[in-house]
């Protein structure tokens, strides 16, 4: 088990490094620089700023300098925000993280029960209706669901706000917008996993021995049936945190999404790189957590790693 974790971490570090190297090179090959935006600067000021941020050096040398600083915990200085990147992330990441957690909890509470019920009621009206709703949830993008929820719920429920991030009630609408699509995927994945388990020989044997349906479902079917859902939850959780740019913009959530978009438009190299490192690391850790959970749920994986 420990060997598996170390191996996954090693692979994750390589992935994050490659992601950083590609991003680092790509943003510097884009036309312009952080000082060639809408505000015009004198040539000598632009050159001085480039020297200040060491952007006047060749790209490979800049990369080595950046890695050396990163090894000391320094993520650089935002040229447009005039703040350390670590400070910007410290103040904005908690909102994105909370939004991702709330969205994932909503998705789990909706998707897994819906998938289990749909599998148990296979080929019934409940099954067909659940899967139709799930397909609709998958098909409609979040930037369409968001304004609809804001218009329909916020106008009818007094304590729900269309925008803001002051109290937990402000988290509900953006989290629900994120969670509905992921919950729809979870419902379909859980249904497939449950149907596969319910058709296994040991389930038929349990039925033949007279074991109650409730006991079979709780003790055997659910544990095996949600394994595909657990494998999906890890990457999905990271995707909710890293892919909530549009939702954060719609509901004015002070998270990382807005910083990422602005850093791209303003060519803010260091801020963009910092966000990429953070999001890449989150995806790696989420996948690692999913792998560990699968090992505990699946005895065959435990025996393979023994």
UniProtKB/TrEMBL annotation:
<keyword id="KW-0813">Transport</keyword>
<feature type="transmembrane region" description="Helical">
    <location>
        <begin position="12"/>
        <end position="30"/>
    </location>
</feature>
<dbReference type="Pfam" id="PF00528">
    <property type="entry name" value="BPD_transp_1"/>
</dbReference>
<feature type="transmembrane region" description="Helical">
    <location>
        <begin position="271"/>
        <end position="297"/>
    </location>
</feature>
<dbReference type="InterPro" id="IPR000515">
    <property type="entry name" value="MetI-like"/>
</dbReference>
<dbReference type="Pfam" id="PF19300">
    <property type="entry name" value="BPD_transp_1_N"/>
</dbReference>
<feature type="transmembrane region" description="Helical">
    <location>
        <begin position="97"/>
        <end position="120"/>
    </location>
</feature>
<keyword id="KW-0472">Membrane</keyword>
<keyword id="KW-0812">Transmembrane</keyword>
<feature type="transmembrane region" description="Helical">
    <location>
        <begin position="171"/>
        <end position="187"/>
    </location>
</feature>
<feature type="domain" description="ABC transmembrane type-1">
    <location>
        <begin position="93"/>
        <end position="294"/>
    </location>
</feature>
<feature type="transmembrane region" description="Helical">
    <location>
        <begin position="132"/>
        <end position="151"/>
    </location>
</feature>
<keyword id="KW-1003">Cell membrane</keyword>
<feature type="transmembrane region" description="Helical">
    <location>
        <begin position="226"/>
        <end position="251"/>
    </location>
</feature>
<keyword id="KW-1133">Transmembrane helix</keyword>
<protein>
    <submittedName>
        <fullName>ABC transporter permease</fullName>
    </submittedName>
</protein>
<dbReference type="InterPro" id="IPR045621">
    <property type="entry name" value="BPD_transp_1_N"/>
</dbReference>
<dbReference type="InterPro" id="IPR035906">
    <property type="entry name" value="MetI-like_sf"/>
</dbReference>
<comment type="similarity">
    <text>Belongs to the binding-protein-dependent transport system permease family.</text>
</comment>
């Amino acid at each position: 088990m420990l060997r598996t974790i170390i191996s996954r971490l090693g692979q994750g570090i390589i992935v994050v490094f490659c992601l950083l190297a590609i991003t680092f090179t790509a943003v510097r090959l884009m036309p312009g620089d952080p000082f060639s935006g809408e505000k015009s600067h004198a040539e000598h000021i632009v050159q001085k700023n480039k020297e200040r941020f060491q952007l006047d050096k060749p790209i490979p040398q800049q990369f080595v300098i950046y890695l050396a600083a990163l090894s000391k915990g320094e993520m650089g200085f935002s040229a447009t925000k005039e703040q350390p990147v670590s400070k910007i992330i410290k103040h904005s990441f908690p909102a994105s993280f909370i939004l991702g957690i709330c969205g994932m909890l909503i998705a789990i509470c909706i998707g897994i029960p819906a998938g289990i019920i749909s599998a148990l009621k296979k080929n019934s009206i409940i099954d067909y209706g659940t899967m139709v709703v799930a397909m609709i949830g998958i098909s409609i993008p979040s930037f369409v669901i968001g304004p609809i929820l804001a218009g329909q719920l916020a106008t009818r429920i007094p304590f729900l706000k269309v925008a803001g991030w002051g109290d937990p009630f402000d988290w509900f609408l953006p989290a629900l917008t994120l969670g509905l699509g992921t919950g729809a995927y979870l419902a379909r994945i859980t249904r497939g996993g449950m149907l596969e388990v319910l058709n296994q020989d040991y389930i038929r044997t349990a039925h033949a021995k007279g074991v109650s349906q409730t006991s079979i479902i709780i003790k055997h079917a659910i544990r095996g049936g949600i394994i595909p859902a657990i494998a999906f939850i890890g990457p999905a959780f990271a995707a909710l945190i890293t892919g909530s740019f549009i939702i954060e913009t719609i509901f004015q959530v002070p998270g990382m999404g807005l910083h990422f978009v602005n850093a791209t438009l303003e060519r803010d190299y260091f801020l963009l790189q910092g966000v990429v490192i953070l999001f890449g690391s989150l995806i790696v850790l989420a996948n690692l957590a999913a792998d560990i959970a699968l090992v505990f749920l699946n005895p065959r994986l435990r025996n393979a790693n023994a």
